[in-house]
Design goal:
The complex is a heterodimer of chains A (112) and B (114).
Chain A lengths: L1 E6 L2 E5 L4 E9 L4 E7 L5 E7 L5 E3 L5 E5 L4 E6 L8 E8 L5 E3 L3 E6 L1
Parallel strand pairs in A: 2-11
Antiparallel strand pairs in A: 1-3, 3-8, 4-5, 4-9, 6-7, 7-8, 9-10, 9-11
Chain B lengths: L3 E4 L2 E4 L5 E7 L5 E8 L3 E10 L2 E4 L6 E7 L2 E6 L8 E8 L9 E2 L3 E5 L1
Parallel strand pairs in B: 2-11
Antiparallel strand pairs in B: 1-3, 3-8, 4-5, 4-9, 5-6, 7-8, 9-10, 9-11
The chains are: A mainly beta (112), B mainly beta (114).
């Protein structure tokens, strides 16, 4: 069985501030982890993925995430928020059963 | 560009009507999926197919059916639509040889059932 918990359904940060979106996972096997972004009226786009290589994963648009097995976490960060980062972000886990399980999403708002 | 397309993009229908949502892909992927997205609930899997002859129920398949007409086409049907099926529906694909099941999403179909 696998599951994902995203803490905070809404997060607001000021432009230029640190972005931190939290994701904790549960998986009975070594997981593969993903962050997807959904811009308004669009589908989901892959930001980055952890596939058991480096624990610090860099993605598009300056985002990165660190896999921490001891904390069962895969939090998404960006050092400096930009207005264009406003979107909904989804964490997902694949635990070897060939299906993705998604979190409930975090809506990121950027304050000018 | 290899892509995942969905038709229609928006649909308004009435309770009891039969609706078909279509998905096509040019990625050459064997695996296809249908999800629905509801506010605060994330994406939930309705059906998935690993090849033309393989169809599997997801976590919320009641009230839905699917057809895999070809490797590139996967349709979702609502036999008798009801208002709580109002949602955003996504099709996704993945490669059979992907050990971590990275999925690629279409733009979505917004369905409203009155």
């Amino acid at each position: 069985a696998q599951s994902v918990t995203q803490l905070g359904s809404h997060v607001s940060v000021s432009e230029g501030a640190l972005v931190l979106l939290r994701c904790n996972y549960s998986s009975s096997v070594p997981p593969y982890l993903f962050w997807y972004v959904q811009y308004p009226n669009q589908g989901l786009q892959l930001l980055l993925k952890y596939t058991s290589a480096a624990t610090l994963v860099k993605g598009i648009n300056g985002f990165e995430a660190e896999f921490k097995k001891s904390e069962t976490s895969f939090h998404l960060t960006k050092p400096s928020a930009h207005m264009s980062d406003a979107a909904e972000y989804f964490c997902a886990v694949s635990g070897g059963n060939e299906k993705l399980t998604f979190g409930t999403g975090t809506r990121l708002t950027i304050i000018p | 560009d290899a892509d995942v397309t969905q038709t229609p993009r928006n649909r308004i229908t009435k309770t009891g009507k039969r609706i078909m949502l279509e998905c096509s892909q040019t990625k050459g992927h064997d695996r296809m999926y249908w999800y629905r997205q509801d506010p605060g609930l994330g994406l939930r899997l309705i059906y998935y197919s690993f090849d033309v002859k393989d169809i599997n129920k997801g976590e919320i398949s009641d009230g839905y059916s699917v057809s895999r007409q070809a490797q590139a086409k996967f349709s979702l049907s609502l036999e008798s639509a009801i208002p709580n099926q109002t949602a955003l529906y996504f099709c996704a694909t993945s490669a059979a040889d992907s050990s971590y099941n990275e999925q690629f999403f279409g733009p979505g179909t917004r369905l409203t059932v009155l």
